[in-house]
Amino acid sequence: MSKKVLVMAEIRDGNLRNVSFEALSAAQKIAEGGEIIAALLGNGTSQFVSSLGQYGADKVYTVQDERLNQYTPDAYIQAFTQIVKEANPDVIFMGHTSIGKDLAPGIASKLGLGLISDVTDVVLEGREIIFTRPIYAGKAFQKKKVSVGTIFATIRPNNIDVEEVDPQKSVEEIAFPADIKDLRTIVKEVVRRAVRGVDLSEAKIIVSGGRGVKNADGFNMLQELADVLGAAVGASRGACDAEYCDYSMQIGQTGKVVTPDLYIACGISGAIQHLAGMSNSKFIVAINKDPEAPIFQVADYGIVGDLFEVVPLLTEEFKKALVTC
Ligand code: FAD
What is the mean pLDDT of residues 188-216? Predict the structure, then answer.
């Protein structure tokens, strides 16, 4: 039976986040020919309508209002609830991003819906949609389905393959006036710590450092490798606690959860709390001078050695290899 799917498209720093396309691809997998609607909140978002069509949206509902240009739970819950009521979908998807993690429970509670969060795979089995999500800090996976009512799930970034449907696909934009009132919070400005290079949560390659990196200068060495690979730099909490780098770089149970194609762990022991944030990476390379370090248990490739010798060698070799490519 065809299903109408509503996908919230997320904009950050003036660009559509890749997880929006991943959520549209998840929608394609389960819609069975049903209508796919994308939602865009904020002023000036019409420029993204055609890209959403390319990746599967049949219609795009927009709510253009300056109070939606920056995320606030108050305004977004009201605007997105308005869209859900207009669209009356069978299924709702949004990214399991910092916005999605905050917004989805608010929407679910307002509309009385169940929510399956942090989904890493979505498949159609017979007539049922089966969601996979990690549990116990990534040590096991749980399969879930919703038997009654609207199905609502947040999709973990970098897990669902993006499929372009049709570069020429026509897509209809339907604009709604914002029905937003009694806002308790207004964001006047967002000041972000300057991050060099690639955004950690969307990076395909991450070079990550732990306490073994010894100091902030050691992180400059990791940044050089990252620059050659077009990668982002992450860190263990050990490295953040030691003030070698900023907490915004922390990966793990109390930091960011990442699933890049390649994760290079340098001088990280592999504590369970760190593994919770990175063990689902597609390929893990660990560099550690201790052959017994637990990180080697999750690594696809391990280099037992001093990272201060290994990392510069890798940087040089990758430079040469990438020049000849
Ligand atoms: P260490 O455990 O000290 O490991 C350093 C490693 O570097 C060692 O394996 C050593 O052999 C290696 N090394 C040293 N010198 C070199 C060298 N020259 N070359 C190569 N290797 C070298 N941690 C996180 O990362 N993320 C979290 O989100 C997180 N959340 C937590 C939440 C709670 C509630 C608690 C209690 C802890 C949390 N932790 C978290 C901390 C976690 O338990 C570990 O303490 C931390 O991950 C250790 O960081 P590390 O691997 O960098 O340091």
Answer: 87
